[in-house]
Amino acid sequence: MHPMVKPALRRAWRERDRVQFGVTPAHAVVLGPVDPATGCLLALLDGTRGLDLLREEARKLDLPDGHVDSLVAELEKAGVLDDPPGHSAAVDALRNRDGALDRLRPDAASLSTVHPEPGGALERLAARRAVRVQVRGAGRVGAAIAAVLSASGVGHVEVLDGGRTEPWDIAPGGLPEEAVGERRDVSARRLVRRVAPGAPPRAAKTPQAGAGGEPGLALVVVAPRDGFDAYVPDPGMAADWVAAGTPHLYAGVIEGTGVVGPLVLPGGSACAGCLALQRADRDPGWPRMVAQWRSGRRSTAVACDLGLATTVAGLASAHALSYLDGGLPATTGSRWEASLPLLDWRAARIPPHPECGCGAAGNSAAGKTGGERASGAGARHATMAG
Q1: Does any domain span residue 383?
Q2: What CA–CA distance (Å, rounded) separates 188 from 183?
Q3: What is the pTM of this model?
Q4: Is the pLDDT of residue 384 over 90?
């Protein structure tokens, strides 16, 4: 082990014998008491020294035997310690991709603040390479989501859409101007390949793999060019995902409102059917209007503010990555909305509907989000051993 204090966590002394790692309440931890000699030893935890060398340095500082081991144990318990050389075969494969890890170093630093175990950040980045995500929609929102997921290290990003790229589909971070006139799906796939930090791993033949050996779908992101289908998702379209247990996340822009969520975990959180039933309970006229909106003639270019679309794409991508990395983001069983011009994000819980056939009603785990698990108003405090 070559212990290293996580570089992403800024260090500062609160008092003469108490040190804080990290700035924000979500990630900060305070350790103490810390004597001056131990403070000097902390500066040596930069990943360049193994435990034997650190023990030798501790003896030079007149620290007692076992002090290094207890210090390292306390730092690891507090979640501020990393171990750069520690890795698995999957991390080795990531390291061996020319330039891939350099592209993802900011992502690794961010992940290190979220996942406390040493080496956890690189393990999750390596795991992303084996993940398969499908993005349905290649407009201003969908293409940007696909690009962010691919650039964040997701190894298999598929994009489904029809028609040709129109001038109004073009957006920074999305489809480029030269794509106008091309098939949308072809343009989006080229975008995904261009921004990816290295080629995806070769498909492995496993019981979970689909046709051609590709991995099973870990997530579907529904980001239609017409945001109506994200705001009023069709239960029929999602029926196969619910039946197969495929998680799916809705995102889009309708009129002047951006929508992210819900993230549907089939059998565990509310689905499109639950949403439709609840809206009909509150407004008996809603199903009649939905039928008219779905059958009505649509304009060629739907309303989609570029700034709002970019914001929605970023938030949806972050929630998707949080889920793929093993979390339950706040969109699980909830929908987040923001409307122009104030752009005040607000969340609406969507409990499972008892009459929906998705099976989520009555599940005690439904709707438990990462935000509920990780609440806290200030830095965590830990007492140093010794």
Answers
A1: no
A2: 9
A3: 0.90
A4: no
